[in-house]
Amino acid sequence: MTILNRGERGAEKDSCDFTIEVSGEGMTSAAPDRTIITLGVVTEGKEVVPVQRENAAAISSIIEALTELGLPRSNVQTKSYSIDPQYDYEDGKQVFRGYKATHLLQISLDGVENAGTVLDTAAAHGANLISEVAFASSEAEKHQAEALAQAVRRAQQKAAGIAAALGVSLSAVPCKVQEIGGEGEPIRFKTMMAASDGHTQIEPGQLTFKAAVRLWYLFA
Question: What's a BP term from Gene Ontology annotated to this protein (predicted)?
Fold first, then answer.
């Protein structure tokens, strides 16, 4: 909390010349209803064409298996693709080892229940890299607005308490409002290699949405 008067502000011109400054924070939580999975295939070999073909065959197998699960083809898209030369270092010298092809798919799911099934299916059809599993909410804006409203209410309550303690009156509305950050926190799971012979079970938990504000009230 900060109380400013005109003398302390010096030559700075502002409509908030006699103010009480307060801040407030808000937080809400919600169950996620969307899943975003990033996974793919890494292949290596001496010759670039065989490496590329092996990678493409595995990716095609994964996509076909996922569509057989009922996943719309539009929910699967390439996130990144690269072919890079690989080197070893022997006695301080760079020695060519071969090529590495990496193809990552981004898979979007409605709901969270089938994340494990998608991971297991992809792994069974050649996926050997799981980059990320993230959960999100289709109503993120609504939950963020609720957190922001909560932050404002808490700041207002602070200002009212300070004014009552000082025996002063506050302006009906703040003369200045500033949002000072806060956002939904996606829940993410990361791993390097997909390796599962059984059923993968992932718990989505809850998403947290945070907001914070700073308010300036005129007082008299």
Answer: DNA damage response
Q: pLDDT for 116-173, tens place per residue?
A: 999 999 999 999 999 999 999 999 999 999 999 999 999 999 999 999 999 999 999 9
* Residues 6 or more apart in contact with residue 72 via CB below 8 angstroms: none
What is the CATH number that goes with domain 34-136? Answer: 3.30.70.2970
Q: Which residues contact 45 (CB under 8 A, 6 or more apart)?
A: 51, 54, 98, 99
Q: Which residues contact 167 (CB under 8 A, 6 or more apart)?
A: none
- Nearest 5 degrees, angle CA 173-CA 181-CA 133? 140
The full set of domain ranges for the chain reads 2-31+139-218, 34-136
Q: Do 2-31+139-218 and 34-136 come out as alike in CATH topology?
A: no
Residue with tokens 């289709």: 138
DSSP letter (8 states) at residue 113: T
In the block, residue with structure tokens 């390796």: 195
- What is the per-residue pLDDT across 59-103, written as a single tens digit (0 to 9) for each? 999 999 999 999 999 999 999 999 999 999 888 889 999 999 999
Tell me the CATH number for domain 2-31+139-218. 3.30.110.170
Distance of CA 160 to the CA centre of its chain: 36
